[in-house]
Amino acid sequence: MNFSLPNQIIIQNISIPFIAIFIFLAVLSWFFNMWYEGRRDGFDEERLLDLSFVTFGFSFLVVFALYRLVGWLEIYRPYNILLGFDKWLLFIFGAFFGGIVPLVYLCKFWNWSKYRLLDIYVSAISQLVFFIAFGIYFIYKIPSVMPFIVLCPVIYILILRMRGIQFVSGVMFSIFLFLMIPYIALFYRAPGYLFFCVALATISIINFYLRWRKNYAGSTSFGRIYKTGKRKATRKTTRTN
């Protein structure tokens, strides 16, 4: 099937890139998923909207700062180590992790579960990436984004079905990061891709460890073992007497 979309659309003599429509749908889908899934989890709706706007705005500022920094380095510091990385990977990582910073901070400030919000965050990201990848593939015919068109809906459904049921909250965030590693390694082997793969794996493992320690480590802590042993010894002594 040789289906393609135009690069530009003209509305009243104004030329607009067709990809802008998919970006608009992607952003709209991201906001809706953050609000809808957060509301289903019992979070306050108004604060969810505040969190979504702050998170999106901070991501935009991070990407803008990186864009200006890379442009400045290309002119005045052409041998800077940062220019050894693919700039699009740099922008994507900046946007993704830039949004996590205010999300985690606001969760701590409002006493919300950051692990539940991180799962919702990556589920919304999967929908955003789907729309953008769909537009890029059918407008610019870039085959490397094709896996996202297939995998993102699957990832979204898995996150919705498994988070909080088969897996405790926060685990799907780590799984999402791990799933990005083979994609980068196989389809986007740009300069510095190994660094980003290692970074994803490290962050995923750290998040999983912190979630495991919070949920399970307390039940096997030395303090609890000592108290349990002392309680059993006391009961045994009482029965003997």
What would your notes on this structure say?
The protein is mostly helical. The chain has one domain (8-240). The chain has eight helices and two strands; from the N terminus they run E-E-H-H-H-H-H-H-H-H. It has a two-stranded antiparallel ribbon with strand order 1-2. Strand 1 (8-11) and strand 2 (14-17) form a beta hairpin. Helix 1 (19-40) crosses helix 2 (45-76). The longest helix is centred in the N-terminal third of the chain and has 32 residues, at 45-76. It is globular, with a radius of gyration of 23 Å. Residues 219-230 and 236-241 have low confidence and may be disordered.
Keywords:
241 residues; mainly alpha; 2 strands; 3% strand
In brief, what are we looking at here?
The protein is 75% helix and 3% strand.
End-to-end gap:
86 Å
Read across the widest sheet, the strand sequence of neighbours is: 1-2
Strand content: under 5%
Mean pLDDT across all residues, rounded? 85
Number of strands: 2
Number of domains: 1
Segments where pLDDT lies below 50 for 5+ residues?
Answer: 219-230, 236-241
Can you give the helix content as a percent range?
A: over 70%
Q: Helices and strands, in N-to-C order?
A: EEHHHHHHHH
